[in-house]
Amino acid sequence: MLLTIHVAAGGLAMILGAVALLVKKGGTIHRRGGLLFVYAMLVMGGTAAILGSNAGSGLMTAYFVEGPRPPRPTRRSRRPLLRRRWA
């Protein structure tokens, strides 16, 4: 059962990754496809950690997909956050 979930999440991640790459960047389909890709990859990484003999590799995959979050500005910071605009 767990292997089926792992394979299904991997297949879904491949399809959603292709969708996110092929549609216009910043659009609704791009954002939703990218977010669902991240969720599918997290499911795949979690099931890989359970299924595999080396649980660290599955957890490391989930970490690389989600990644560390940038630090939030402190209240003392007077410089506003700049929005990144990628072309």
Order of helices and strands: HHH
Share of β-strand residues:
under 5%
Number of strands: 0
Question: What's the shape?
Answer: flat
User: On the 0-100 scale, what is the average pLDDT?
Assistant: 80
The Rg value, from CA coordinates, equals: 17 Å
Estimate nothing, just give the exact number of structural domains. 1
- Number of helix segments? 3
Our measurement of the CA-to-CA distance between the termini, rounded to an integer number of angstroms, reads: 42 Å
Low confidence ranges: none
Helical percent range? 55-70%
Main β-sheet: number of strands, strand sense, barrel status? none
What is the structural class?
mainly alpha
Q: Brief overview, please?
A:
This protein has three helices and no strands. It has 87 residues and is mainly alpha-helical. Helix 1 packs antiparallel against helix 2 and helix 2 packs antiparallel against helix 3.
